[in-house]
Amino acid sequence: MIRRDIVSIKDLTKEEILSVLVRAKEIKTTPPGPILKGTIMASCFFEPSTRTRLSFESAMKRLGGEVIGFSDGQSTSAKKGESLYDTMKVIGELADCIVLRHPLEGAARQAAEATDTPVINGGDGANEHPTQTLCDLFTIQECQRKLEGLNIALVGDLKFGRTVHSLVLALAHFNCRLFFVSPASLAMPDGLLESLRSQGVPFSFHGSLEEVIDRADILYMTRIQTERLSDSLEQEKSFVLTPALLQKGKESLKVLHPLPRVDEIAREVDKMPQAHYFTQAKNGLYVRQALLTMVLGS
Predict the structure, then answer these.
(1) Identified catalytic residue from 53, 62, 129, 257
(2) Counting beta carbons within 10 angstroms of the beta carbon of residue 149, is it exposed (0 to 12), middle (13 to 18) or buried (19 or more)?
(3) Which position among 37, 63, 122, 182 has the lowest Cβ density within 10 Å, counted as fewest Cβ atoms?
(4) Which of 23, 51, 159, 173 is catalytic?
């Protein structure tokens, strides 16, 4: 994976995905120290971010590397009309790898075409978020002791939620049963459903959490992506996970959420043993350290 672009989770084989998870576990168990000293990561965020941006920057600094970049595209020459292609071509000359978040689908692919410097997709519009998926898989494996053969319910905005798009593509490797819980207007895109069908992944559609709560091993909650909704969809309400509802699930059920949370998980759930989303966020540090060491060849 040395000097590889990580634009889509589809760019990685099952074996490569598992190798990242192994490296992340090693790093979580035994921090490696400043093994990336002398390298520079460009953190280029044209769209708001808390966990992805800060975990990548923390990961790089904990590995001894340096970080340059920006957290607001309005502070760059994009405001003057410079194309993303030109911006990435220049930044590629200044850094050893680029982490990019952009509101437009396909932006990460365009950036990768502009430069020979490795580009890691930190989220491109409603398309994908491959590093979040690696964090999700690491957390699922950690809390369920396996990835194979699990029942996984994905809940909320499945149309515009890029984290679930990447996640279902990765889960296709692991013989999982998928339950899609969403309003009809925010259902999983047809293209992804066709990909799952072609790979023989079993899935079904549901209109409420109550329909799946007792069957799920993982409950993957998401917020409604209000920033991507048209006016006609702005009134869609999220499904809300409460302690009473959660108690109807298996004892081994774990709840994940890529965050930020809005109102789809009651605060009281945070104290319950099933809640694993803050651990999931913390695991982003180790997974992104793993990716950086592998892409930069340490």
Answers:
(1) 129
(2) exposed
(3) 37
(4) 51
Of 101, 162, 254, 276, the catalytic one is 101
Domain of 231, in residue numbers: 130-281
Residue 30 pLDDT? 96
Closest by CA position to 287, among listed 146, 107, 74, 142: 142
- Find the catalytic residue in 23, 39, 52, 223: 52
Rg from Cα positions in the chain: 19
173 assigned to active site? no
For 117-159, write each residue's pLDDT tens digit: 999 999 998 889 999 999 999 999 999 999 999 999 999 999 9
Q: How far apart are CA 136 and CA 134, in angstroms?
A: 5
Of the residues 29, 30, 80, 237, only one is catalytic, namely 80
Tell me: the pLDDT tens digits for 11-36?
999 999 999 999 999 999 999 999 99
Q: Is 139 assigned a catalytic role? A: no
Known catalytic residue: 177?
Answer: no
The answer to whether position 3 is within a domain reads no
140 and 265 assigned to the same domain = yes
Write out pLDDT tens, residues 218-274.
Answer: 999 999 877 655 554 444 566 899 999 999 999 999 999 999 999 899 999 999 999
User: What letter represents residue 286's amino acid?
Assistant: Y
**Domains in the chain, number:** 2
Answer yes or no: do 173 and 224 share one domain: yes
pLDDT tens digit string along 159-189? 999 899 999 999 999 999 999 999 998 999 9
The answer to whether residue 68 is domain-embedded is yes
CATH number for 254? 3.40.50.1370
> Is 129 noted as a catalytic residue in this protein?
yes
- Tally DSSP H helices, then E strands, for the chain: 9, 9
Scored b (16 or more CB within 10 A) or e, 249-273 reads beeebbbbbbbebeebbbeebeeee
Q: Is 80 among the catalytic positions?
A: yes
